[in-house]
Design a protein that fits this description.
Elements lengths: L2 H23 L5 H18 L1 H4 L4 H10 L1 H10 L8 H24 L7 H24 L11 H13 L5 H26 L7 E7 L11 E3 L3 E11 L4 E9 L2 E10 L4 E9 L7 E10 L8 E10 L3 E9 L4 H13 L3 E5 L1 H4 L3 H8 L6 E5 L14 H19 L5 E2 L8 H9 L4 E2 L9 E2 L1 E4 L2 E4 L2 H12 L5 E6 L5 E2 L3 E2 L1 H16 L3 E3 L1 H11 L6 H5 L1
Parallel strand pairs: 2-8, 9-10, 9-17, 9-20, 10-11, 12-13, 14-17
Antiparallel strand pairs: 1-3, 3-6, 4-5, 4-7, 7-8, 15-16, 18-19
Helix pairs in contact: 1-8, 2-4, 2-7, 5-6, 5-7, 6-7, 13-14, 15-16
Length: 544
Amino acid sequence: MHISDRIMPWLEYGCKASEAMHKIIGCSLHEDLIAVALITASTIAFILFPPLASLPARIPIGLAMIYFLPGYALIAALFPSRDDLDFIERAALSIGLSITIIPITGIFLDNTPWGIRLAPVVISLCIFTLILSGLAWIRRTSLEEDRRLSINLKESIQRFKVWLEEENSSKRDRVLTIALILLLIASTLSLAYVTLTPSQGEKFTEFYILGPGGMACNYPGWVVIGENSTVIAGIANHEYRTVNYTIVVSLNNTTLAKRDIKLDHNQVWKSPVTYELKIRPREEKRINLTLYEDSNLTTAYRQLHIWSRSMHPKKVIIRNDDVDKVDPVLLWLSDIVMKKDISITYSVIPKYILLHPGIIEYLNGLDKDHFELATHGYGHVGEEFSRMSYERQVDLISNGTRIMEEAFHKRPYTFVPPFIESSNITEKICMDLGYHTLSTPRFEDINFNWESYRPEGIFYHRFQDFKDRFDAFYNSYDEFFIIMMHHPVWFNKTTGINETVCKDFEKSIDYMKSKDVDFITSEQMYQLNNAVKAENHTITSRLK
């Protein structure tokens, strides 16, 4: 059988299809561009509209839009004449240029607010193709009719049929032409198969943990005793099957939390996991997060861990120095302490309370659960303990301690040197006299001072200054925040109470209480540190 006899039936079908297309379109000069425009419009409908997106027609239309139509429209616009390129060259260039146009479109979209998403990509390619199709139409119509590119399927098929039947056409040319056509069809089908049936890659599961903010940082390295800790656990299933996962949070052999998750292939799960860590204060432990697969709780599939160390809630110590007599600011401050239900340490100057007996009666009337009375040197003025001899320091500290015990019927346990200056001698004397805490920068860091003393006078800090310092402490691993103030300088006989600084101070108390911190005294800080046997700010532990 002659090769033309085998292919003739298919050519007849092609001619009939072309005739039907002519009847529908009513034009044969630009039927290729009309077909491009119709398929391009169909792409938007079949890709972006949910009712049509699930139909099988979506696949061939999408493949044509990706691998052929944009390039064909570009070639048609660049080469409108039938003499420029033959059909095989146009087809090959259309495929190559289409593959090139897509990444260029992606680069353009990546620098726009829309980004590289399905809808922007499809719409951009369709607009590009339609614009080029219109430009190709205009360029074709500007040429003489006999030079215009006209892809009439019926005429093309008839010419091909005549060429096959010609006696002078060699058998080799016919075979090579048909082979090239079949190769083009096979390449298109292979490309479609590879696109629609991607090869199965490596099977694995992603398992990760994030901090509370959703980033790979700020993990709960320090946890507050009695409060819950939270991490964000994530699982991504790449096992090419549905998997039942189990996450177990454990400490040693004790389960702290457990979650069961069922995920399909390529499904991602990410959610907070909360647990309570019950360990001793300042103790560091390894928290394990174990992932099990298919309810098999004997063999761990993936495992992660974080190190956590427990701590008490954040604590604030407020120390008010230079208490020597009753004044309006002291009355206001004591009222704030009781109203806000906080604790404070008053540093009392022993020598001057003897000159103002009213202060002794007033301080004795304060609630001992909210107020600690500390010894503030002896007479304060000119008392720079770091420059004094041993005998002079013993005399002043002993006399000051005696006055405090007689006035308040209780021995003081915190000693505050005037001008926060001391020496090794001061430390030894205080320890011998039974003091627990020597309040100086050597043993405790003052985190915030409401006043600054400058050559031009006293400068009062504002609430925002305090907030910035406190927020830095609150987000750190530090446990204690020490505030120092001198209430006498908040009052002037001429101007009265400094309302601005008082309001800022009260605002700072409310802000700290909103953070659920504990307000304690200097003595309570010593008791707490001594109870947990940790590094602290006390004299005795430092000397040991």
